[in-house]
């Protein structure tokens, strides 16, 4: 007789799974994670699934969030729209469902142009981008797909469209952050919140 084992709801099909791993509840995470979940609920009306799924290792999640938040949500050297553009290009190239959907939503809001943002999410070459935006997208794609081929010469097009050293450094960090986050999200099957599909439309 085969012994049956229970499968966590987070792994069962058709049961609102958001990750391949079991997702902790509020009693299983550090206080800092609970506070962040509460802040998200108050500010945007829901807790992003990535906040719940990554909290399996609460302190590591908080360390990731602090860096991610600094790069994407604080005042930086690139504009919010430029950082989200890069996020969507990298996520699209990596075919990361969670990040392409969630940051596609943010890009729609920052651009105020759902058609342009949706085109970026599918194939940035078919989007109505400025020369500067196209240069950012091309660099993000190359660094994502062919990092070993990137040389100092690849910085020249960035400088030609006006990027300074601070902006180049931030651009590289944002590209790196999304390659990391894409891989975590894809490896563990993170599912985007339904709210993202409606946001910015």
Automatic annotation (TrEMBL):
Start and end residues of each Carboxymuconolactone decarboxylase-like domain: 60-141
Gene3D superfamilies in the record: AhpD-like (1.20.5.810)
InterPro entries, per database record: AhpD-like, AhpD_core, CMD-like, Uncharacterised_peroxidase-rel
Superkingdom: Bacteria
Record protein name field: Carboxymuconolactone decarboxylase-like domain-containing protein
Taxonomic source organism: Deinococcus aluminii
Taxonomic path: Bacteria, Thermotogati, Deinococcota, Deinococci, Deinococcales
């Amino acid at each position: 007789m085969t012994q049956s084992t229970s499968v966590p709801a987070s792994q069962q099909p058709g049961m609102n799974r958001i990750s391949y791993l079991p997702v902790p509840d509020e009693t299983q995470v550090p206080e800092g994670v609970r506070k962040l979940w509460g802040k998200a609920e108050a500010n945007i009306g829901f807790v992003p699934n990535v906040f719940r799924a990554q909290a399996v290792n609460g302190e590591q999640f908080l360390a990731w969030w602090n860096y991610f938040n600094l790069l994407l949500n604080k005042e930086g050297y690139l504009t919010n729209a430029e950082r989200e553009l890069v996020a969507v290009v990298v996520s699209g190239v990596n075919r990361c469902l969670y990040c392409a959907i969630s940051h596609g939503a943010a890009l729609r809001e920052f651009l105020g142009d759902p058609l342009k943002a949706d085109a970026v999410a599918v194939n940035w070459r078919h989007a109505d981008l400025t020369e500067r935006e196209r240069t950012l997208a091309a660099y993000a794609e190359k660094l994502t797909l062919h990092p070993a081929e990137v040389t100092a010469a690849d910085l020249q097009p960035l400088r030609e469209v006006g990027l300074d050293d601070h902006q180049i450094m931030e651009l590289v960090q944002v590209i790196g952050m999304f390659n990391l986050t894409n891989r975590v999200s894809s490896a563990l099957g993170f599912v985007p919140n339904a709210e993202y599909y409606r946001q910015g439309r």
